[in-house]
Amino acid sequence: MNVFRLSGDVSHLLAILILLMKIWKTRSCAGISGKSQILFALVYTTRYLDLFTSFISPYNTAMKVFFIASSYATIYLIYLKFKATYDRNHDTFRMEFLVLPVLVLAFVVNHDFTPLEILWTFSIYLESVAILPQLFMVSKTGQAETITSHYLFALGMYRALYIVNWVYRYYFEGFYDLIAIIAGVVQTVLYCDFFYLYVTKVLKGKQLTLPA
Amino acid sequence: LRRSAVKDEL
After folding, report:
1. Domain ranges across chain A
2. Cα–Cα distance measured from residue A107 to residue A115, given in angstroms and rounded to the nearest whole number
3. Which of A24, A83, A101, A183 is deepest in the core (most CB within 10 A)?
4. Chain B partners of A177 at a C-beta cutoff of 8 Å?
């Protein structure tokens, strides 16, 4: 464990807590893409299957349990509890356009052709594009609530910090995993447009609006 | 350089 990965995990945790707080406090999931949350639940479910087979540390186990539980809790809030506030008309990104190519890629490009490894690879690839429905929804509505932009910023920073962690581990531990690194770079690049808007607008107290 | 088989990252 290093400070970059720890701060990445903290940023990830913060993003999830911000999202849950936003939905719970405002009793509304307006502006939140349920499809991205479904993809995240799929990402954690397929990645953390080793929860039962390999124990790394109490921290590792606790975080995996939390990520899985919170992703399903978010789906429950969006599609059941506050479904009246779910903006179905703007959450129209076709998930199958993401899941299917990622599934094929996981079978073609992986480190080991075993079920657990293919599921892990699928999860890594899927996570890199899972935010697209959410970013698409923000661009479609042309704006996002400030709290939602904080959620997106924390979520985007998590994987950006992981990239620094991978550089660190490459030089100090001789560790690298090209699949995770390339997917992580793609994932972070997808946020760049949003990062720019967040820094130039939200941090100056303005509303996050996109040129629709 | 080795690639860690155990996924110790989240």
Report:
1. 3-204
2. 10
3. A183
4. 3-4
Residues of chain B in contact with residue A56, where contact means CB-CB under 8 angstroms, are 6, 8
Could you give the C-alpha distances from A207 to A27, A115, A147, A152, in angstroms and in order?
21, 45, 10, 14
Tokens encoding A174: 């001789």
pLDDT, tens digit (0-9, with 9 covering 90-100), for A66-104: 999 999 999 999 999 999 999 999 999 999 999 999 999
In whole angstroms, what is the distance from residue A183 CA to residue A22 CA?
Answer: 28
Residues of A whose CB is below 8 A from B9: 5, 162, 165, 180
State how far the Cα of A197 lies from the Cα of A211, in Å rounded to an integer: 11
Higher-confidence residue: A133 or B7? A133
Tens digit of pLDDT for each residue in A117-175? 999 999 999 999 999 999 999 999 999 999 999 999 999 999 999 999 999 999 999 98
Q: In the beta sheet, which residues pair with residue A208?
A: A144
Please, which residues have CB within 8 angstroms of residue A31's CB and are 6 or more apart in sequence? A87, A137, A138, A141, A144, A145, A148
Q: Diameter of chain A by CA atoms?
A: 51
* Interchain CB distance below 8 Å, A5 and B2: no
Query: Residue A170 contacts by C-beta under 8 Å, 6 or more apart in sequence?
Result: A176, B1
- The span from the CA of A65 to the CA of A144, in Å, is 29
